Amino acid sequence: METKNCWSKYSLKQIRELEVFTKDYRDFLDNCKTERECVNNIVNLCEKCGYTELEEYLKAGKKIKKGDKIYAVNMNKSIILFNIGEEPLEKGMNILGAHIDSPRMDVKSNPLYEDTSIAYLDTHYYGGIKKYQWVAIPLSLHGVVIKKDGSTIEMAIGEDEDDPVFFVSDLLIHLAAEQMDKKAAKVVEGEALDIIVGNKPLTIKAKKGEEDKKDKDPVKAEVLRILKDEYGMEEEDFLSAELEVVPAGKAREAGFDRSMILAYGQDDRVCAFASLFAMLEVKDVKRTSCCILTDKEEIGSVGATGMTSFYFENVIREILNLMGKADELKLRRCLANSTMLSSDVNAAYDPSYASAFEKKNASVMGNGMVFSKFTGSRGKSGSNDANAEYIAYIRKIMDDAKVSFQIAELGKVDVGGGGTIAYIMAKYGMNVIDAGVAVLNMHAPFEATSKADVYESMRGYVAFLNAPGM
Predict the structure, then answer these.
(1) CB-based contacts of 468: which residues, under 8 Å, 6+ apart?
(2) Which DSSP state fits 62?
(3) Are strands 289-294 and 94-99 parallel, antiparallel or unpaired?
(4) Domain residue ranges in the chain
(5) SS3 state at 90
(6) What one-character DSSP code corresponds to residue 348?
(7) Rounded distance, CA 359 to CA 128, Å?
């Protein structure tokens, strides 16, 4: 079964809508290069659309009713939105779930050092990356530093034209004969991904008649001086810092026809933004709609802000309690009766690397939203395998809304694989399927998507949130 390129079916009105939507998406990518930045921007957007934080309901003991729009934030790194429908919550929800973390390099707790007049920050890479892709490109530094007095220093250095950028050095080709013989996984070692942050030594002028004082590590000392003068940060403050190293620069239109988007972090902020937009777009719903934008998916969804934590469950309990239905059985019914799109990306078929794909079961850029019946690896290990009844239900929703979609796998059997949050949510007994955007260059510093796929995914998410239960 062949799918068709979406562009040929669009009216001029739809193309205008697509361009406006994808411009907003590029702005989101530019302003949201970390989980914390995503949550801050999402809170601002949803409050403008009438959403109220769950904490305000809890403090006031306010009852939750049909039409209420609620959000809950977890440690400033994940967020859940609810649009309360007219049906009882125990009948289930329509859930969209994406992740807002992306592969990157994290600055270590004791990172700053000097070697041969160059100052470095030591890093530990986060998520699955090809390490050689991260050398010799402009990098920016984003995150927070929490001082002992509880005050917060926010950093985003390297995005404005007047900002400095940082980089990881690579060996010049003239001396790289031995390096070029290494396997790709060993060309650049993880411990070699240290970013260069300075080269100018600190000079301390002495009093008249005395020699200038010299620091043992003068370049490191100059970096520390800048950090203190410009950010109020001491070296010890690295201990309580969360600083992420990401590619510098804005999301760009790609191709002579401007049909694509090239940017950092599209896995999975493309699905996160489309899910968020859909959530804010739907108005009165019969069935409660929910949007989960979570953290830590790239490292197994672990930790307090990942999908394996009890945060989602705890929030549902609080909502049921404010509805006067604080009952464990009602919670379990709510979860089991829910339906979910695990909003995550798929690997777009790449003709340059055709041997990694089974073409007739691969997603194609520009051919619409992608549904993945299962992910995992080898013999479907670690996957949620959606059942046929649920896929038929989803097909009808998409066809009725005239959403272009395709169904695809993640590469050839035994070539590799990957996972999403789908299997975690399926443990509640709910129906779940992966649904998102086809991506080229996945997990590279700059990933590529088709504007048409981003637009169709948003339309598909809107149709799903408005759908009746199975």
Answers:
(1) 286, 287
(2) P
(3) parallel
(4) 6-102+264-465, 104-247
(5) helix
(6) B
(7) 24
Residue type, 311: Y
d(CA 263, CA 470): 37
Q: In angstroms, rounded to a whole number, what is the distance separating the alpha carbons of residues 80 and 74?
A: 8
Among 282, 335, 337, 286, CA closest to 470: 337
Structure tokens that stand for 128 in this block: 């699955």
Is the entire prediction scored with pTM above 0.70? yes
> Would you state the pLDDT for residue 205?
64
97 within 8 A of 292, measured Cβ to Cβ? yes
- In the 8-state DSSP scheme, what is residue 64? P
SS3 at position 58: helix
Task: Count the neighbouring beta carbons within 10 Å of the beta carbon of residue 2.
Answer: 7
How many angstroms separate the first and last alpha carbons of the chain? Answer: 26
Average pLDDT, the chain: 95
Does the domain spanning 104-247 belong to CATH 2.30.250.10?
A: yes
Helix extents (H) in 232-290: 266-281
- Structure tokens belonging to residue 34: 């970390």
pLDDT band at 206 (very low <50, low <70, confident <90, very high): low
The answer to whether 298 touches 133, Cβ cutoff 8 Å, is no
Structure token pair of residue 363: 């997603």
Is the separation of the CB atoms in 343 and 278 below 8 Å? no
Instruction: Specify the CATH number of the domain 6-102+264-465.
Output: 3.40.630.10
Strand order in the sheet with 369-372: 52-53, 69-74, 78-83, 289-294, 94-99, 339-342, 431-436, 369-372, 405-407
d(CA 267, CA 282): 24
Structure token digits, residue 341: 């799109």
Taking residues 220-224, what's their average pLDDT? 96
Rounded CA gap, 385 and 379, in Å?
11
DSSP 352: G
Q: Give the number of other Cβ atoms within 10 Å of residue 237's Cβ.
A: 17
- DSSP lists the bridge partners of residue 89 as none
Contact 425, 342 (CB under 8 A): yes
The whole-number pLDDT of residue 457 equals: 98
370-406 confidence digits (pLDDT tens): 999 998 888 888 889 999 999 999 999 999 999 999 9
Report residue 22 as tokens. 């994808």
What residues contact 167, with CB distance under 8 A and at least 6 apart?
135, 136, 137, 138, 139, 195, 196
For the record, the structure tokens of 190 come out as: 């993880």
